[in-house]
Predict the 3D structure of the following.
Amino acid sequence: MRRSLIATKTERSLACSLTKITPVDGARVDLVDAATNDVMGQAFTDSVGAYSIPWKVAKETDVFVRVMAVSKHVVVANKGGRIHSVRVKESFPVFKGDKNADLVARDKEDTAGAFNILDAIRRADEFLEKQAGIDTKKLEKITVSWTPGYNGRPGDITSFSAKGNDKTAFIYGDRSVDSDEFDDFVLIHE
């Protein structure tokens, strides 16, 4: 399975009308059996959003491709804990040879924000690796809680909380008030 994932990203912080398409680097891609929902293989996208998943099946099998907002140490989920993802709308058969599946996470579908959050953290990791020599693969797992249209309770702010093993960044998602999923400076700070 070879193809790429791209997401809509804003040119400037909160300028949602100025979007451009950018590759998603470091997101997890699953090849999923459409009948059983079993994951048959996984890979991570590279710097141009490409991925390749080898598979072995005994007979033709219907599958779909799903990209999860998950990287080496970050999970982007909604307030209910469901991980943000994008998938190919229709399943398709695989048996032998290459199959292609391109995916696009668009802002209007409320998926691009999750992948921008993932990308901002990846760029911060890259900075830490190059400038400070930190191996970010060894960092503790964090969850980013972001739900489109939701900013928490009155008085809540975009913030990071570390309570025991639970390390969570809470990111605003209500554009009618304040929304931070495309504010890269806020994301990296948290």
Summary: The two ends are 35 Å apart (CA to CA). The first helix runs from residue 112 to 132. Residues 108-189 form one domain.
